[in-house]
Amino acid sequence: MPERDGYIPGVPCWNDTSHADPKAAAAFYGDLLGWELEDVMPPDAPGSYFMARLRGGDVAAIGSQPEGGPPTAVWNTYVWVDSADATAAKVREAGGGVLAGPFDVMDAGRMAAFTDPEGAAFCVWEPKRHRGARIVNEPGSCVFNVLATRDLDGAKSFYGSVFGWELLDVGGAGMWRLRGYGDHLEQSDPELRKRMADAGGPDGFEDVVASVRTTAADEPPRWSVTFGVESADAAADRAAELGGRVVSPPTDAPWSRTTVIADPQGATFIASQFAPENREVEAGSSVSAA
User: Which of 111, 149, 232, 245 could be a cystine partner for 155, CB 3.0 to 4.6 Å?
Assistant: First the structure.
């Protein structure tokens, strides 16, 4: 896939996680996903921020647990916006909550953290120097962000109001579509639509920016991240060897084989192996615990 240099508003663009022991987390993910990691914080900084890279391109980051942050480690999803301040107003108008109002992250960008009306947390990123993930949609990088919600109609209304997303049904799996995203991608990848059509992709799939699934009443609404792997089975085995936990064993899913993994400090994520032979597999519960 071509290396990315920015996104358009409304597209998930970055993932990071906060850990009590970021150095140990960096070692876990470096081994499991093949990341090269560098602490980009100044030597006198109170915490760390390990930038994860593949072939020199940023893919994600692991930071220190901030004061007042969530009690357990989690992966955060960031959506690219033109203005974090204007997005905060949209979130409030649509019934969402503000966890952290817009603030500058040095010269990298401006961000804010929100919850949707059900309480699922997400962040937005107004870029300056940092332009999001450079490498996506390949092993070791983010291939999808997934919203788990109890109220699909409510989520459709909220995210449609805030980001302009529409719900697209792809073989029983819900996808968030942002019209015009495929046009943007084709500027650097002219064969995109042809490849998707040749692989049997449905109409509108070129505009997909994330996915969504409905949860049981006792499952908390949340956003999760999916990282690509060469083999879901091998990733599950290696994660266990490194002290992680396999929450959901490798399972066939539409276009993929997936497993849910918790790292040694408790942050969960989905590891997904691209499996075009599974295109006819019905959407199931393989990611229900992520």
Answer: 149
CA pair distance 52, 141, nearest whole angstrom: 10
7 assigned to some structural domain: no
The whole-number average pLDDT for the span 154-181 is 90
How far separated are the first and last CA of the chain, in Å rounded? 26
Q: Check residue 173 and give its pLDDT.
A: 65
Exposure b/e, 20-37, CB count within 10 A at least 16 = b? ebbeebbbbbbebbbbeb
Nearest alpha-carbon partner for 11 in 179, 135, 155, 193 = 179
- Split into its structural domains, the chain has a count of 1
Does residue 161 contact residue 94 with C-beta atoms inside 8 Å? yes
Q: How far apart are CA 253 and CA 84, in angstroms?
A: 35
Give the CATH number, domain containing residue 50: 3.10.180.10
pLDDT digits (tens, 9 = 90+) for 143-166: 999 999 999 999 999 999 999 999
86 occurs within a structural domain: yes
Q: Token pair for residue 193? A: 């639509």
**166 assigned to some structural domain:** no
Number of H helices, E strands in the chain: 6, 16
Q: What is the pLDDT of residue 286?
A: 42
Query: Rounded CA gap, 31 and 246, in Å?
Result: 16
For strand 166-170 and strand 142-149, is the pairing parallel, antiparallel, or unpaired?
unpaired
Please report whether residue 91 resides in a domain.
yes
Supply the DSSP symbol for 214: E
Q: Can you tell me the distance from the alpha carbon of 66 to that of 113, in angstroms, rounded to the nearest whole number?
A: 13
The residue ranking higher by pLDDT, 36 or 184, is 36
Q: What's the rounded Cα separation, in Å, for the pair 188 and 192?
A: 9
Q: Which domain holds residue 42?
A: 12-127
Question: So what's the pLDDT on residue 247?
Answer: 97
